[in-house]
Amino acid sequence: MPIIVQKFGGTSVATSEKIVEAARKAVRAQQQGHQVVMVVSAMGKNTDMLVDLAGQITDRPAAREMDMLLSTGEQVSVALMAMAIHELGSEAVSLTGGQIGIKTDSSHTRARIQSISTERMQKHLDAGKIVIAAGFQGIDDDLNITTLGRGGSDTTAVALAAVLGAEACEIYTDVDGVFTTDPRVVAQARKMGRVSHDEMLEMASLGAGVMHSRSIEFGKKFSVPIHVRNSGSFSDEPGTVIGPLPENADRAVSGAALTKDEARITVTGVPDRPGAMHQLIAAIAEESIAIDMVVQDVGTDGRADIAFTVLEGELPATLKAAKEFAEAFPGAEVSHEANLSKVSVVGLGMATQTGVADRMFRALADAEINIKAITTSQIKISALVERTQGLDALRAVHSEFQLDKAPEPSSANGNTVEPSEKADAVDIVSRLRRMEDLTIEDVQLDATQGRVTITRVPDAPGIAARVFEAIAAESLLVDMIVQGTGRDGLANISFTVPSESVQKAVEVASATAKQHGCGPVGSEKEIAILSVFGIGVRTHVGVGVRMFKALDDAGINVEMINTSEVRVNVVVNAAKGEAGLKALEAAFADVIC
Ligand code: ADP
Ligand code: ASP
Ligand code: MG
């Protein structure tokens, strides 16, 4: 009998009436011929309330005790859900993460799943019971209760669907599906029929809180069809399918997102040599803090400035680590800026289309929004802006890319997983030691690109837009873009284009630079881009550290960096490309699947 996993989020079990409603859905699925596993979250804002209670007792609760506390929310829901199902005349059993056998590591409050035993669940299912699993929790080797991180019930649900070989994982929530952006923030947001794993991964990490991003990593790794839908709808209204294909591959941009609470740390005066960057990144990764929007500017005096963003909540810990790092380098200084937001556009289509960046920058410039930093990856462009302008920025880009309009129907059908992909997934997983281990697919060298750098760009709205409009007018395909706020408010904009386009790009950039009072335009006809890609490369904060260490040990300096959920790219000197590739292959040999 096919298995279906149905997950109900906090608002979908917020009251006894809603619990009964959810129970009806599960019973109906069972009557339609499924074995049913439900995963439930804590009722309403119960987890927030528990966090608040802990805060009334102490500012520094022990992480183990925090997990003990937070896991109780889900325990209340599963018991009530089982009672609701009994009341409807069906059989059900509630189970905690530990009772199911969800084994995790011991990193309390952000534990990773290592394995799940299916025996107990399967026995109950075969006996005709609906299994009700507590979301967001597990147990470590010493039988301590752990939790997976806020929003982690999605991850429990997709992980259970993966190990049980479920036909589908339905995520019931308080909106109709995944929208082009948060529908509570932008009224014009449109429900997407489907969205690809890679797009959803980016959107989730960039602020689309509708899904826990680690759940999408499981969905991709184990080919679990995920269907996000509204628990409040009585009809069988379809939601959004998260699968291998995008809604429409011809569209450059599929969605937009806003991360409201960003802060930026800048470390100036770092010696520009291998090792320095590695030490800084290692010091921050040590605190398990994921950094983003890394911008490195090389000065003329052999010293570099490094800036990056973190979530504002992580600012104190990040500053502490950065200051300890800076103490080792006389002349190095740490500064920071809070109250920032990051607006991003995401789309698989932008990897192969020109003229996406310039449209985004133009939309922001027209809304009189100054861009404080820019980073890109193959499928996303992020701009850092003042927090007071964050919402306007999101609305401006959503409207620029007409995300409210449904795309033309695309002939490809993304709702099913190809059998060959399923086989691949099984193959990869069989080589993993633990379910949530980092999975590196490959390490690659791209030696086809060159780099252009416009120096001393004034910190004023509209300049990035004009530069990339001029570049797009020549149909030059820009790959990476990096812009920071340099010293005295003068930043560098660096971007990569195919080597054969470097000269043209320099001409175009020079003309624009001159008009706007920028400094000279530099270029390197050939650079080497080294990439490590796979699943979980951002959430496993150690990937960047491993890369930098390997390159550092090989005496190779990193000149530019960009990261996404599935890829870390670094630019190194063209002559060091092959050596860099070998160093990275050796460094990741144990995790390449
Ligand atoms: P649950 O409790 O069901 O897990 P969440 O609150 O975690 O629900 O996620 C649902 C919320 O995610 C929605 O209410 C919506 O405001 C927010 N959200 C943010 N971005 C998006 C998006 N792109 N599409 C849909 N919802 C989004
Ligand atoms: N109850 C947990 C939280 O609020 C887990 C979840 O809802 O996914 O974060
Ligand atoms: Mg959620």
Supply the key terms.
593 residues, alpha+beta, Carbamate kinase, 2 domains, 17 helices, 26 strands, 34% helix, binds magnesium ion
- The total domain count is 2
CATH class group of the largest domain: Alpha Beta
Q: What is bound: which ligands?
A: adenosine-5'-diphosphate, aspartic acid, magnesium ion
User: Which structural class should the secondary elements be placed in?
Assistant: alpha+beta
**Proportion of β residues?**
25-35%
Number of helices: 17
Give the total of beta strands. Answer: 26
Strand count, sense and barrel status of the largest sheet are: 10 strands, antiparallel
Mean pLDDT: 91
Q: According to CATH, what is the topology of the largest domain?
A: VC0802-like
Helix content: 25-40%
The CATH architecture of the largest domain would be 2-Layer Sandwich
Major sheet strand order: 14-15-13-16-18-17-21-22-20-23
Distance linking N and C termini: 32 Å
Rg result: 24 Å
- Poorly predicted runs: 413-420
CATH superfamily of the largest domain: VC0802-like
Overall body shape: globular
Enzyme class: transferase
Keywords: Amino-acid biosynthesis, ATP-binding, Kinase, Lysine biosynthesis, Nucleotide-binding, Transferase
Family: Belongs to the aspartokinase family.
EC number: 2.7.2.4
